[in-house]
Each structure stands twice: as structure tokens, then as C-alpha cells.
Amino acid sequence: MSSQKIGLYPGTFDPITKGHLHIIRRASRLVDHLIIAVADNVGKKPLFTWEERAALVKTDIDNMPEKHCTITVERFSGLLVDYAKEQGASCVFRGLRAISDFDYEFQMAGMNRNLYPEVETVFLTPGEQYL
């Protein structure tokens, strides 16, 4: 088993925002490898294709001035906990913009903890300028 701490930051990123990038920068301080897991969720009817969303994320990460770990962009579908197990992730980062996000994210974190107790959910809030 690798001693490297792997974190996931899942989302549709349709499109990626400055708030997302702020969360990515902060999350990169907490792990050795951060996987930006771009959801292949056609049920949400995204504006951009998965390939376009992934390319936008990659471009922004390549241009990010401060990265504190290895950051990769991956395609993901299905249950997040299954993907976390597959990747060997120890934590999942979730952004909270407002109190209304918390109720949903809190419920999802509890469900994920029941399905895969080895992964922690870490809530981060973006800077006020990105709310």
C-alpha cells in the first residue's frame, strides 16, 4: 500500500470556476496527489462535453501559479465511494458555497462514510470573493 495521501475533488465543472480553482489550490496543500474527478454525468445535461470540461480544467491547472502536490484530471462515473476505493483515496474534498449546500453534502458524506469508512469527507469553503 502506498504511503502517498490521495485526495479526490469530484464535480461536473460545467464550467470550472475561480471558486473551484480556489478549492483546488487549498486542497493541494493537504495531499500528495489530488485527482480532479470530472463527472461523466449526462443525466445533469451539462453545457459542455466531458472532453471539453476536462480540457478546461487541465488548462486552468496547468496555468495555476501555486500547486503543492501532483494534480491530475480524470474521468469518473458511478458511485463516488467505488471510485475512491479504486484510486486509493483517503479523502474527498467538497466545496460549500452556502448553508444550503451543507444539508445535501452532509447527507452525502454520511452515506459515503457508511459505504466506505476509510475515506474522509473534507469540506472547504471558497474565498468570499468567489461565492
Strand content: 15-25%
Structural class: alpha/beta
**Whole-angstrom Rg:** 14 Å
Specify the number of helices.
Answer: 4
Strand tally? 5
Apparent shape:
globular
Q: Give me the strand/helix succession.
A: EHEHEHEHE
Please state the average pLDDT score. 91
Largest beta-sheet characterization = 5 strands, parallel
* Low confidence ranges: none
What is the quaternary state of this protein? single chain
Distance from first to last alpha carbon: 38 Å
Strand arrangement in the largest pleated sheet: 3-2-1-4-5
Please give the share of residues in helix: 25-40%
Summarize the structure.
This protein has helices at residues 18-27, 50-62, 80-87, 99-115, and strands at 6-11, 33-39, 70-76, 91-95, 120-124. The protein has 131 residues and is an alpha/beta fold. It has a five-stranded parallel sheet with strand order 3-2-1-4-5, with helices on both faces.
What does it look like?
This protein is α/β, with parallel strands linked by helices and 131 residues long. The protein has helices spanning 18-27, 50-62, 80-87, 99-115; strands at residues 6-11, 33-39, 70-76, 91-95, 120-124. The radius of gyration is 14 Å and the shape is globular. The termini are far apart. The mean pLDDT is 91.
Note the main attributes of this structure:
single chain; 131 residues; alpha/beta; five-stranded parallel β-sheet; 5 strands; 23% strand
